[in-house]
Each structure stands twice: as structure tokens, then as C-alpha cells.
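User: Please predict the structure of the protein below. I'd like the answer in C-alpha cell form so I can feed it into my own downstream comparison script.

Assistant: Understood. Taking the following sequence of 396 residues as input:
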Amino acid sequence: MLEKTAIGLFCGCGGMDLGAEKAGFKILDAFDTDKDAIKTYNHNLTGKARLVDILQLKHSTLPKNVDLVVGGPPCQGFSTAGTKRLNDPRNQLWKTYLDVLKTVRPKGFILENVPGFLKKAFPSFCKALDVELSNSYIVESKNIYTQFYGVPQRRYRTIVIGVRRDCLSFVPWPKPETREFGNERKRHPALISILEALQDLGPANPVIDLGGEAEGVDHVFLPLEAKHYEISKHIPNGCSLKNIPEQALPAPYKGRERKGNPGWFWYYRKPFTDLPARTVLASLGPTFSQILAPDIWVERANDEWKWQPVNHEKYIDSQGLYTTPVSPRRLTVRECARLQTFPDDFYIFGNIRARYRQIGNAVPVEFSRRLALAFSMALDGNFAPVSSAQLPLEFV
């Protein structure tokens, strides 16, 4: 059987491409403009990436007869956590993705982005795809939580899959561990908790040299600034800024209405240890819930590290204010990599901010592997589409 091949666009440090490699694809070419990410990619993957601005890419250099194109155009212009500028030039990079599809005409493609892509760019993408490639692809999109696909992280993303009509008559989607549900506090044995994913790493340490690469060390975190530390110590696990009594709120939040769904309620949120983590971000702003580690005691027993979550009820004063007995911190680089399902031997280059950025911008490796594997199995005739109706009703 011939080896299947792929190209990686906007490849970053290689999360999506590594998933494709693990699914059996040979990466023939890949591109990105981030020097640190390219160095990380080329150190860890079998395929090699080029430091190239895709807008300047000479399409004559692209491999031919490729089975799969993977990648996600930068999403900052569509993201709720980004700038949300309508004129952000990155909003138009899907057109470059389309240009590559026109040149390569792969048997299929997988595009990842934030849900805002569906509303703001997807209709134009599909229309242009039909016109430019003569309606030769079947295209489907889904908004997916990665926690249902072997990832210990509640990451909500849009996936667009296209298959060439002369190769497949349907779009192959991987089967979730359970039928997906939207209740973020619902626990299920098929989902991987942050505790299960991270506790064996042991104690974390602050990074010493913010500009250095800390060779061989990545279970380190960027220390919180004093003002963020002072707020974070009053946030229990699973809680956020809204759990701080009015009289103890920081000045920017005092006197705000607490009913409804004010966005600031989500600020400084710490994860529940028995649930999947929240989305790993490239941003290090601790106002986002995705960057803080839970309050835990780290203990060693029988040569294994164990987490013991802090019982916050023991540390609430007469005014209802919680003060953690452990030092609040950001998640470490390796913890973020674990939550993105990178293997532990995946070496990340650059200073600590660059390493956080690369991991936060990546597609979870295991999720990518399942997407690519479903496509590969479909090409081989070994994939049976599974409808949501075939999943147990108890998992609604």
C-alpha cells in the first residue's frame, strides 16, 4: 500500500502535522513565518517545514499528487479572545489556503479555526471553492469540543473537512468518546480530567531567565505579576472573579452588576481538577481563565506524584473571602503541552513566552490524529460513518 502524503499550511510548531504523521501520513512540505515554531517543528517531526511567508510562496514548488492538506489560517481576527478587527489582514488568509488547494488539488483537506470563522469567512470560502474548483469537493463543517476526542481540554473549534468527489462520496468524521454535550460542569468517565493529565509531572517551578531557553527544562511557569497574584489568591478551584465578595473586588470591578452574564465573571477562572482543562491560549494574560493552574498540594507517595486539591471551604474568612494556602501560578509550558496532547519528548524552542505562544496556537495532536486517521481509513474503504443517533442517549 502506498504511503499517504500531506502538506501543512500555517503549520506553527506542528500540532496538526504531528497528528497527521501519527495517523500514517508523510508530510512532504510545511510552511510558517514563526522562526521559533519552525525550529521546534523541524526538531520533532519527520517532515520538515520551511520558514516561508505563504503569501510569497511559489506554488510551482509545491508537491503534486498530495492526499491531504492540513492547517488553520491565523484566527486572531475571528477569535473572541483576539482583536476582532474586521480589517485584520489575517482574516483573508483563507484565500491563500484556497489558492494552495487549487494548485495541489488534494484528495482531501482539513481546516481548523475558531467558531467565528463559520460566520465571517466560511460562506465565502465555500462559494469560492465551488467556483474555482468546479464543485469538485464535498465540504462539511462542525463546531467541536476536543474533550470528546481524547484531549484533556475543553477546546471549542471549527473544523472544515473537504473531500474530492472522485475519491469519496462522504466526509469522514471521527467518532467521539461519547455523544457531545454542552454542559461544561458535567463529568463523564470517558473524558480526561486535568488531574489525570498532569498530576504525575510533580512540582512546578518559576522560570529564572525570562529571555533564555532553559535548555531541557519546560515544567516551568512565568510568574504572575503582583496585581494578578493578589487577585488569583482569592479564586477557589472552579471559580472566578464573581466569587470574590463585593468589598474585596479589585477597583475595576467594584459596583458592577452581578446578574445576567457579564464577561468579567469569567476572569481569573481556575479549573476544576476533576474536569478537562479550559482552552490553552497563546496569550499569557491571567485575566483569561485558561492560564491559571488549580490550587493543589503536590505530594509524593509510592514513587508517584499525586495532586491533592485544596478544600477551599477551610480557607474562607468571616467576610466570605477565600485565600489560598498555596502559591497561585500560571500553568507551566509542559502542562500546556500535555493539555494539547504533545508527547513529553516534544522539545520546544525559544524563550518562555515563545514556547507558551507556540503551544497555545497549536491544534491538539490527538484530535488532529483522529481527524487524519478517519480520512485515511475512508480512502482505504475501512471507515463506517457513525451518526450521532447511534451514540447512547444517556450521553446527551
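That's the full C-alpha cell string. The domain at 4-185+363-385 is CATH 3.40.50.150 (Rossmann fold).
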